[in-house]
Automatic annotation (TrEMBL):
This is Cysteine desulfurase. The lineage of its organism: Bacteria, Bacillati, Actinomycetota, Actinomycetes, Micrococcales. It comes from Cryobacterium lyxosi. Keywords: Pyridoxal phosphate, Transferase. One of its GO terms (molecular function) is cysteine desulfurase activity. InterPro entries: Aminotrans_V_dom, Aminotrans_V_PyrdxlP_BS, Cys_dSase_SufS, PyrdxlP-dep_Trfase, PyrdxlP-dep_Trfase_major, PyrdxlP-dep_Trfase_small. The keyword Coiled coil does not apply.
Amino acid sequence: MTSFAPSSANSPAHAAQHPKLAPLTNIDVERIRNDFPVLHQTVNGHPLVYLDSGATSQNPISVMEAEQEYYEQRNAAVHRGAHTLAVEATEGFEAARDKVAAFVGAGTDEIVWTSNATEAINLLAYSFSNAYLGLGGPAARRFSLGTGDEIVVTEMEHHANLIPWQQLAQRTGATLRFIPVLDDGSLDLLAAADIVGQHTKLLAFTHGSNVTGTINPVAELVALARKVGALVVLDACQTVPHLPVNVKALDVDFAVFSGHKMLGPTGIGALYGRAELLADMPPFLTGGSMITTVDMHTAEFLAPPQRFEAGTQRISQAIALAAAVDYLSETGMDRVAAWEAQLGQRLVAGVAEISGVRLLGPGLGVERLGLAAVDVAGVHAHDVGQFLDDAGIAVRVGHHCAQPLHRRLGVTASTRASTYLYNTTDEVDLFLATLAEVAPFFGVKP
């Protein structure tokens, strides 16, 4: 059968240059950029500087070709046919699961395909709701929450890791509590030790903040949950694309991430769940492809992960995500992380030199993701973003789906520059130089 891995011609252009995975340099990054056609254009008369990968990353040629090849050569429904195309499509689809699972240190049966991380968290929340309603039988009772139980999140969560738990608390009568954020954008771990207690049934938190760049101490938080027997849900959207992540080593029960943030296409994400937990969870969506036996009154369900994958699946997207994983693996996640750490510190140092611009999150020398969200005194974030866009620099503006965190930090919105493996130090410097021109342009004195 046909292999769905990208050919050597479509692998990272720089890979052969660094067989021992030496640290990335600007020269390496320029080679990497050759694999990303979208980066080679002008915006408003300026070369595009794409600093919005925290929202959506760009796709290398190999990822686009993997999806195109599927549609050209073996487009068919998976798990539903015995003809050759259906068999090849199914093999490619499941090979993609194998590859993505290995990338995060999970077992193949521990990866459930979803449309994105938001759907993955909602899958959990609604499955737990079904357990509360008595679905899933005695084995599912471990997921049932009710009056007197507590769900703990943090004040820095993306709305995707907050609202589903708010809704679950409302449906079940459980109480939602949160770990507060300190002025530097880090979690108050002393408060966390008091908040995570005997009534805590679930602790959900982000691995890395999409606003402050804070990388949370997973081991400390997991230890708090283990002490009281609570389940742990990790939002790894901002770390799986940028850091080496092994979900087994992190000892979390569930983790979620999205393809479009890690060089893959939109419309594909994944839920990791420990096999023994997925085996006990009742399904969220029901219908075709997730059943064994059906009569007019009852149905029996497949084992995970298919139990949670009702209906026609995201076949081409999964195959393309596997190609993205190939690209990142061949580049080396240690190299990606080191390069972005360098860019992140360069952003922090540069922002510190601009009068009237406040950095949200940890300062120079503190480990952080390769992003920086800032507040320009006297200038709305949308105006800052427009000024940068006029210079060809793409950034994110707004509350980044984290209104409570912005409120805690005393701002309504911020301007965020987020880097990836295809960004150069020159691009970071251009962003900083242009950012320094914002206040004078709008007549604001520092």
